[in-house]
Structure formats: structure tokens, C-alpha cells
Amino acid sequence: MQDTQKLNSACLFILTVIAVACVLYFTKVVMVPFVFSIFLYLTISPVMHWMQGKFKLPHFVSLVITVLLFLVTFVLFTLLTSSSIDSFLEGADQYKDKVNGAASFIELKAESLGFDISEYDIRGKLKSLPIFSFLKSLTGSMLSLFSNTFLIIIFSLFLLTGENISKREVKTLEMIKSSIAKYVSSKLLLSIMTGGLSYIVYLIADVDLAIMFAMLTFLLNFIPNIGSVVAMILPIPVLLLQFGLGWQTPFVIVITVLLQAIIGNVLEPKMLGDSMDLHPVTILLFLTFWGFIWGIPGMFLSVPITATLKIIFSKIELTKPVAEIFAGRFN
């Protein structure tokens, strides 16, 4: 009888997950900015509390200062991102010409060596490479996210304003706040470091679209596991078109790989530690899941959402085994 009850509970849990996933998929237009605003609130709320405690400021004053700091930071970030997107769009036609030039060079070189490769349509194959279409879709997703800025700010303001209604914090909420704040602040610092150092490397080599690639490195660093790999791969076609096999191409590739390896494998584990308490396979699976549900914004939110779910599941008797599986503990 007890086994049957456990089986029924497990089936009900699975059906609930499927139903919630469907609802999230069809309501992503509203849910994505709302979830972003929740994590934004969880990130900037400790800053507001710190100002209240440190400078003995009233709640309203600390709220206004926190919101103004956020708006200034967001405007600067938006301007940098817009600049990088504009530089890419302006250079798109230029790189189409470079692709044609590269195809002609390959065909002529092969012909001089006695090979006829015209039937392989090298020009068409180079044009069909998905790198530039991927960049366009990525920048399009960023612009779409920025278009929801007003909603995100409104949601965040309501959450921050309503926080003072209840003086007593729920312990689970405190755990979520602490975990998310540590993750986001650490990731932000590491992403700024990675993007800034990468930009210096691109400037040394005089790489075209240096600002765009640095901004993409900063943004993609928030996507676990695959984000840093994509950030290293994206500049390679531009490097080959601009420099060929000159010293700049291996220089940029080697230095950026070293930067990603040092920051991702040495600094990040020291700063984050076990604050998320998530197994790498769990992170990868939920990265895929949230990417399917909400696209690129879902990938950015995958780790905070999964960490939040783990904390909530660990507080419910029925879902405690699920929380342990999230952490990679199967005992």
C-alpha cells in the first residue's frame, strides 16, 4: 500500500512538472521579465539592507538610492551593448565581401596546385556557416530582453516596495536570497573580469568588432558550461577573415582560452564554492531544459532557477529526494 502511494505521488509530481513546463512555455512573454525581476530583486535587496544598516537610512531613501544606482548601471550596460550590436550590423556587409574574397583565394590556390574544386561550391559553403546567423539571433535575443526593461523595472520596484510590509523573513526565502545574491555577484565580477581582459587582448591584436566580442564574452559567461566555449569560438571566423594565419589569430585564441580556463576553473570554484550545491550534470540538464522553454534568456536564468528549486524541494518532505538528486547525492 505504501509503495503504491509513493508511486502515485511520483506520477503526480511528474505530471505537475509537465503541466508547469507547458504553462511556462506559453506564458514566457510575461514570465521571463517577471522571473528576471525576481532575481534582480534578490540581488539588489541586500544592497538596500546594507545601506539601511550602515548609514541608518530610512527604507524609502535607501530604496530610491538603490533604484537610481541600478538605473545608471543598466543604462551604461545598455549603451555598451547597443554600441556592440551597431558595430556588428555595420560590419555585416563588409564580412560578406571578405567571405567572397576568402572563397576566391581558396579556389585560385587549389587551381594553382592542380585541383579543380569549383564543383564543391566553396563560396556557398562558407556563406552557409551558421556563425553570423547565430550572432544575429543572439543579438536579437538581447534586444528583445532590453525591450522588456520597463516591465522588469516595474516588477522589481513592486517587490522592493512591498518588502517592508513584513518584518519577519521566512528562513527559506533568506536561504534563497543568500544563495542567489552570492551567485549573481560572483558571476558578475568574474564576467566583468573575463570580458575586460578579453577586450584588452582584442585591442592588442587590433581585432575588428572587439567591443562586440568583449560584450558577448561578458554575457555568455553567465551561461554555465557552454557559454565560455561559445565565447571562445565566435571570434575565430572573424580572425581568420581578417588576419588569415598571421600571428594575431593564434595569439588571440591561445590567450582567450587561457583566460577562460584560469577564471572558470580556478577563480570561479574558489569564489562560488558549494553555494549552489548543484551537480554539474544537473546544471547541464537544466541548462538544456530552460533553454528549450525560454530560449537564451532561459539559459541565463537556468542556474539561479535550479538552485531556487533545490532549496524549495529540500524543505518539502515529498521532494527531498529530488533535491538530493540535484546535488548528485543518490544515497
Notes on the protein architecture:
The protein has 331 residues and is mostly helical. It has a domain at 23-167. The protein is built from 13 helices and no strands. The mean pLDDT is 77.
- Sheet/helix structural class: mainly alpha
Percent of residues in helices comes to over 70%
Give me the count of strands. Answer: 0
**What coarse outline follows from CA principal-axis ratios?**
globular
* End-to-end separation: 23 Å
Strand content: under 5%
What oligomeric state do the depicted chains represent?
single chain
Largest beta-sheet characterization: none
Determine the mean pLDDT. 77
Q: Rg to the nearest angstrom?
A: 24 Å
Tally the helices.
Answer: 13
Report the order of strands and helices. HHHHHHHHHHHHH
- The stretches of 5 or more residues where confidence is low (pLDDT under 50) are none
Which helices and strands, and how do they pair?
Blueprint: H1 2-26, H2 28-55, H3 59-112, H4 122-127, H5 131-147, H6 149-162, H7 171-204, H8 210-220, H9 226-233, H10 235-243, H11 248-272, H12 280-314, H13 320-326
State the gist of this model:
With 331 residues, this protein is mainly α. The chain is 82% helix and 0% strand. It is built from 13 helices and no strands.
Key words describing this protein structure:
mainly alpha
